[in-house]
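Record minuted for everyone:
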Amino acid sequence: MPLDIASIIAQNTGRNNALYAEHVNSRFAKALKIIGFDRNYVKAAGAYMWDDKGRKYIDMLAGYGAFNMGRNHPAIRQVLKDFMDGDYCSLVQMETPLLCGLVAEELKKRAGYGLSKVYFCSTGAEGNETAIKFVRRATGRNRIVFASSAFHGLTSGALALNGGEVFREKFGDLLDTVKVPFGDIEALERALSAGDVAAFFVEPVQGKGVNIPPAGYLAAASKLCHRHGAMFVADEVQCGMGRTGKFLALHHEEGVEPDMVILSKSLSGGYVPVGAVLMTEAIYNSVFSSLDRAVVHSSTFGKSNFAMAAALASLTVLDDDNLLENAQMMGDLLGRRLQALAPKYEFIKEVRWRGLMLAIEFHKPKSLKLRTAWATVNSLNEDLFCQAITIPLLADHGILTQVAGNRMTTIKLIPPLMINEDDVEWFVTAFDKVMTDLHRFPGPAWESLIRIAKNALGRGDEKARATA
């Protein structure tokens, strides 16, 4: 008897949190429950989601950037249905898959930079692991340089390039790496000067904090790498695929010379795990250097024709729906509207954005009452302040957002690229109201926050975090 998935979902709706807590990750389930994020989403379309009570939400998180084309895009879904209905073959392994070649051709054309080969994998972390292996083979060196606040994945190799100590601590010895301040070209030169560095890995716009590099930094960094015999690797897993208003975030700057570019997340429209590593001919030849080394590096699901069909469909949607242009236009509109609110509120330090990758950063206010509120909350939990914004945005206004990273007082916005002016108005109006309430101390917003903090600490949890 075929599995009736619709009936199974219907019969178990509402058990999400309990099942996840019992069988998967009880700490994460508890954290979501404490801050009121334990919703049961049952439907999604474009930039919107609905829960089991019929409430509509706008998704300003987009699955950490996996849904640039929006959730359940009908054109991508139809391609995948057609693929399955055609009974096409996939993962023969001892073959050269047609759709892999077609996707690689499209990616090379869009990326540019003379990157002539593409290696396919399943995730962004796997793409970074691939790049680590390949640059070490190509240069004969072991050391990797990465930037502060970097996030390249949580597998062991990628973890060595993670700028957040909370992710690295207590996992033992990692690869030989050096951290330099993001945007500091002099620090990068010092790190490269010993001549033992294989590559510099950098996100052209950093996901943790939405940090935008100084003008000319990426071009200067790539040239500096080459001067010292190192590779320049651009991690575009989150900031690529049109997120910043251009296909690659690198495309915002002239004169950049990447040796490798890593893509993933929204490459399949969020339907299928897929990743791609674009590289120069020289790197490719150093790894796959002879016939007997033709499969010296491979990934079981990396050549999936199903994933490639999704990737081709996603690239088509990116063009047909004019998503790059919309990301630039809506990003500028949202960024300017939020920037205009900053003078009204003491807590707002800065609004920064590139396309639809935005950050609202907060800092200690000037007035005595609000400074007291800030100090009280931070004494309980240094990660807690931003929850005073994300919690009411979800609970009162139906807006899903996220904190930009651990120990950061920054809210991050990475919505699907098709959001419109009404969506911008929805968010700005809600954010304005939340900030007004937050600037009243004492007040309900602060009382709720302190109660949440004490509740979490009282249960013995180390932190009440909901970051990614």
